[in-house]
UniProtKB/TrEMBL annotation:
SUPFAM superfamilies per record: Radical SAM enzymes
Family annotation (Gene3D superfamilies): Aldolase class I (3.20.20.70)
GO biological process, one term: biotin biosynthetic process
EC number of the protein: 2.8.1.6
Subunit structure of this chain's protein: Homodimer.
Family, per entry: Belongs to the radical SAM superfamily. Biotin synthase family.
Organism in which the protein naturally occurs: Pseudodesulfovibrio hydrargyri
HAMAP family: BioB
Entry protein name: Biotin synthase
Organism superkingdom: Bacteria
């Protein structure tokens, strides 16, 4: 068994065996640069040299009914995060125009909460039309949508449905007690069945094991999710995970590389927690570690980086910003 032999399998889209997955994880501390180099090779073979850029707006913030332990927007925690109802279509369109000027092509409208009421659905529909009219790709992260709601929003121009599974089915009950993991999996399936581009991934550094990371990746692979957002915990005061140390850059890079071997042809988009884990100096390492997309601008409740410096890093790495 060797990195070369596992890489050859990944180049053909073949899933590594359990022993090979273990071998990849064991390479992480000692042979990290080689692991990352092989992951980058798999990434360029399947996805070329393009880096997908997306941006989001926190369109409805706080007072969420759910109690996800890592999230500042839960109404169950004492985090000092903004609270406001759904922004108007005009406000969302203004944020989309700013994101477009910064180089993003996909624009995600993100709203806190588990289920979507009728008034918010009307607001989403109007905002989706406005974002599409700007020539951007409208995505929506609204919680769980019913099939009829998905169809209606797709007819309005919705292209992407975003719903993270967050972590493995095994670890999830330790992170959230207000809904079942299966509800999230069903939401992802409904988005795929509706013919939408589904973004579903997770957050790392929340006490999950390597087994949990593998379990999540294999489920995403089985579901056929085309795009996998990867977030890293920023511990937020007032949340149950406030005292947890952020992941080291090395561990986060190893997770990205592992995901490239497990999901060789999927978009791996690095989202929240990038500045927390990598600071300003090490973010560019992600671009040659198997990642194929970046979220630019601010995240939901934390500040992001400078999109211009992301574009510079992309070009320096010999990569090109992608239209999707
Ligand atoms: S992660 Fe989503 S569902 Fe969970 S508390 Fe935060 S906004 Fe609510």
């Amino acid at each position: 068994m060797s990195l070369d032999s596992i890489t050859r399998k990944a180049l053909d889209g073949v899933l590594p065996s359990d022993a090979e997955i273990m071998f990849l994880i064991e390479q992480a501390p000692e042979r990290l640069p080689e692991l990352l180099g092989h992951a980058h090779r798999v990434r360029t073979a399947h996805l070329g040299r393009k880096v997908g850029l997306c941006a989001i707006v926190n369109a409805k913030s706080g007072t969420c009914s759910e109690d996800c332990a890592f999230c500042a927007q839960s109404g169950h925690h004492a985090a000092d995060s903004p609270e406001y109802p759904l922004l108007s279509p005009d406000e969302i369109a203004e944020a989309a125009a700013r994101a477009k000027a910064a180089g993003a092509t996909r624009f995600g409208i993100v709203a806190s909460g588990k289920l979507v009421g009728g008034r918010d659905l009307d607001g989403f529909e109007a905002a989706i039309r406005r974002v599409a009219a700007l020539g951007m790709i409208p995505d929506l992260s609204p919680g769980i949508l019913e099939r009829g709601q998905l169809t209606r929003l797709k007819q309005a121009g919705l292209r992407g449905y975003h719903h993270n599974l967050e972590t493995s089915a095994t670890h999830f009950p330790r992170m959230c007690s207000t809904h079942r993991y299966e509800e999230d999996v069903d939401a992802v399936r409904a988005g795929l069945d509706a013919g939408l581009y589904v973004c579903s991934g997770g957050i790392f550094g929340i006490g999950e094991t390597w087994d949990d990371r593998v379990e999540l990746a294999l489920l995403l692979r089985e579901l056929g999710v085309p795009s996998v957002p990867m977030n890293f915990l920023t511990p937020i005061p007032g949340t149950p995970l406030e005292g947890r140390a952020p992941l080291s850059p090395e561990e986060a890079l190893a997770i990205v590389a592992l995901y490239r071997f497990l999901l060789p042809d999927r978009q791996l988009r690095i989202c929240g927690g990038r500045p927390t884990v990598f600071g300003t100096n090490r973010q560019r390492e992600l671009l040659t570690a198997g990642a194929s997309g970046l979220m630019v601008g601010d995240y939901l409740t934390t500040r992001g980086g400078d999109a211009a410096s992301d574009l510079k890093d992309i070009r320096r790495a010999g990569l090109v910003p992608a239209r999707e």
